[in-house]
Amino acid sequence: MLDLLSYTGIVASIWIVVGIYIASLYYPNYSHAKQFCSELGAFGSPTQKLSPAINNYPLGFLFILFGYYLIVADSAHNPSSITPTTIIGAMVIIHGLCTWVCGYFPMDADPYTSKPTTSCKIHTWSGLVMLLSFIIAPAVVIFSSVYPIALRLFSFYCILGCFFFSYKLSGALKAKTHPGLYQRLSYGFQILWLFVYSLYSIG
After folding, report:
1. pLDDT given at position 136
2. What's the whole-model pTM score?
3. Concatenated DSSP letters of the chain
4. For range 161-187, the mean pLDDT
5. Mind listing the UniProt keywords for this protein, alphabetically (predicted)?
6. What's the CA dihedral at 152, 3, 16, 25 to 10 degrees?
7. Closest to 198 (Cα-Cα) out of 4, 5, 10, 53
8. Whole-number Å distance between alpha carbons of 45 and 33
9. Is the CB of residue 189 less than 8 Å from the CB of residue 165?
């Protein structure tokens, strides 16, 4: 059973790409470049119910299972200490829980509204925690000598890519141009890191 759980990180990394694409097919004129991923599940969107059903809820479950696997597998080798892998597992679980929260509390239909609803505020704060959890996790790898230098360097570049495109996202949001593109690139670096780290954890 534990061996099967080791693949949940890889499955989640692929699922998120496929799930967003499928949901977008049911949203007329949806733009991946101009619109946020969360707009698929926003209040009043054509895919308000569909998007969290095929994205947030199963993805959150997969993240949590992978985090659980990391903690349990690592504790078998290090039963009396908190290791870098345990911390990473906890971050992945937090990411999964916040994925559920973002699905349950939709954002507003207008991402530029000056008066967001309570649901939108919860969604936004939960999204911020998601972002931080997958910055902390690769940062742990960077500063942990237990990991090979190649993985540590890869983690560094993934964080760098995430920060760069988050900066670009901030500018695009203010200019109301292509925030969706930069959101996908920013989060894409985090998901790429998860995919590679998942492969490493299996090996």
Report:
1. 98
2. 0.95
3. -HHHHTTHHHHHHHHHHHHHHHHHTTSTT--TTTS-GGGGGSTT-TTTTHHIIIIIHHHHHHHHHHHHHHHHHHHHH-TTS--HHHHHHHHHHHHHHHHHHHHHSPPPS-TT-SS--HHHHHHHHHHHHHHHHHHHHHHHHHT-TTS-HHHHHHHHHHHHHHHHHHHHHHHHHHHTS-HHHHHHHHHHHHHHHHHHHHHHHH-
4. 96
5. Membrane, Transmembrane, Transmembrane helix
6. 150
7. 10
8. 17
9. yes
More confident residue, 203 or 63: 63
Q: Which residue has the tokens 């964080």?
A: 159
CA 12 to chain centre: 9
Q: CA 130, 136, 138: angle at the middle one, nearest 5? A: 110
pLDDT, tens only, 83-115: 999 999 999 999 999 999 999 999 999 999 999
Q: Minimal CA–CA distance to 45: which of 110, 118, 115?
A: 110
Q: Which residue has the tokens 């707009």?
A: 39
